[in-house]
Specification:
This protein is of the alpha+beta class. Strand 2 and strand 3 form a beta hairpin. It is globular and about 35 Å long. The protein starts with a helix and ends in a 10-residue tail after the last strand.
Length: about 80
Amino acid sequence: MLSTMARSLLLAALLPVAFADDGCLHNNAMGDGVDHFTHKVEPIHSKNWDIAYFDTYKIITNKHLEQSYLLYLCGSEIPAGV
């Protein structure tokens, strides 16, 4: 069972970063070299999960269940070949 702090950190990792009033990334912001994930989390007190950040998406891995979740930004395309 995850502690309250771990749940809060995971929830923060899942929330999208707001880029406009609608909360979505727009075409003119893609591929601009800007770090779209300015608030990054990392497992400090837990070995059961991991997170990797990419240009417009992140992958969260539940090591205990051996499952990964691809989370992409609203307004961006689903990453191909991931």
